């Protein structure tokens, strides 16, 4: 694993989000107060002349409380052999117990943010929240989108400035 500058971050974005997924983790490692969930919707880009990661969290998710309370979060990607663990972390709630202990994953301190990361990750993106907004159903231009919200639990969108990337060499372009 190596540090990767945001300008050198190279990956097949759609492959990461659609097929590999991420663990979104917010909280404070030193206070042993954090939660994680699997996310498969989001994106990376440039906003306000900064590298940005955007994630979405429904208000019904336990991680939402942590995203609201803490100003940093991490995104961690894993080798496909951890897909079962990511599936468990995306379907079980942290409200019901220590779901991380049910996996083969090890929570560790991040390099620069208070939100933790995972030892087994092949890519860790550390972010500081910069902006949030709620999805507004009246702004959906395609009526099919509303079908994703039968419970009317519209996502909150978080823009996080990417402060640090640590990952396998395959995620870095040579410059």
Task: Describe the model.
The chain is mainly β and 175 residues long. It has one domain (2-171): Electron Transport, Fmn-binding Protein, Chain A (Pnp Oxidase, Chain A, Roll). The protein has helices at residues 13-20, 62-69, 83-91, and strands at 2-3, 22-28, 33-39, 42-47, 50-57, 72-77, 107-108, 117-118, 123-134, 156-167. The relative contact order is 0.25. The chain is built from three helices and ten strands; from the N terminus they run βαββββαβαββββ. The model has no long low-confidence stretch (mean pLDDT 94). Strands 1, 2, 3, 4, 5, 6, 9 and 10 form an eight-stranded antiparallel β-sheet that branches. A two-stranded antiparallel ribbon has the order 7-8. The two termini are 17 Å apart.
Labels describing this entry:
175 residues; mainly beta; Pnp Oxidase, Chain A; 3 helices; 14% helix
Please write the CATH class name. Mainly Beta
Write down the overall geometry: globular
Give the N-to-C terminal Cα separation.
17 Å
Largest sheet: 8 strands, antiparallel
Number of separate structural domains: 1
SSE layout:
Blueprint lengths: L1 E2 L9 H8 L1 E7 L4 E7 L2 E6 L2 E8 L4 H8 L2 E6 L5 H9 L15 E2 L8 E2 L4 E12 L21 E12 L8
Antiparallel strand pairs: 1-10, 2-3, 2-6, 4-5, 5-10, 6-9, 7-8, 9-10
């Amino acid at each position: 694993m190596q540090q990767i500058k945001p300008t050198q971050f190279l990956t097949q974005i759609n492959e990461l989000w659609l097929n590999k997924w991420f663990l979104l983790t917010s909280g404070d490692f030193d206070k042993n107060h954090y939660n994680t969930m699997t996310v498969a919707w989001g994106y990376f880009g440039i906003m306000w002349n900064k590298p940005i990661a955007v994630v979405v969290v429904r208000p019904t998710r336990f991680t939402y409380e942590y995203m609201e309370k803490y100003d940093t979060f991490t995104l961690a990607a894993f080798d496909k052999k951890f897909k079962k663990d990511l599936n468990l972390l995306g379907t079980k709630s942290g409200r019901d117990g220590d779901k991380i202990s049910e996996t083969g994953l090890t929570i560790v301190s991040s390099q620069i943010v208070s939100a933790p990361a995972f030892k087994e990750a092949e890519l860790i993106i550390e972010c500081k929240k910069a902006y949030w907004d709620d999805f507004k159903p009246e702004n959906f231009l395609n009526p099919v989108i509303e079908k994703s919200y039968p419970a009317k639990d519209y996502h909150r969108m978080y823009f996080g400035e990417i402060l640090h990337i640590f990952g396998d060499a395959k995620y870095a372009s040579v410059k």
